[in-house]
Design a protein that fits this description.
Elements lengths: L2 H5 L11 H11 L6 H29 L7 H22 L1
GO cellular component, one term: dynein complex
GO molecular function, one term: dynein intermediate chain binding
GO biological process, one term: microtubule-based movement
Length: 94
């Protein structure tokens, strides 16, 4: 029916990252924050936040009948947002 539309479309398929991958990415991203003990705790918190949001998307769909997707890029955005806010906080402490 619309050959140019069908020929030019791309499907992006996202799968969930395993918990070990989420943890590894967070630990590597948060190295600039502080000591290794702090990094481990922060990384676990970030993983927990991401996983809980993923679980809540199921509930959101059941109640609102609207889809919400958590992707690897949304996890990276979470880490980026934390690092930006941490930078702002450190600037105000000077």
């Amino acid at each position: 029916m619309f050959p140019s539309l069908v020929n030019c479309c791309t499907i992006d398929w996202f799968v969930e990252w395993p918990q070990e991958a989420l943890l590894s990415v967070a630990e590597n991203s948060l190295k600039v924050v502080g000591g290794s003990e702090d990094i481990e705790k922060l990384a676990l918190i970030c993983v927990t936040i991401h996983e809980s949001v993923s679980k809540m998307t199921v509930r959101f769909y059941e109640e609102m009948r609207r889809h919400y997707y958590t992707t690897p890029s949304s996890y990276l955005e979470l880490l980026k947002l934390y690092l930006e806010k941490e930078g702002v906080r450190n600037t105000h402490q000077l």
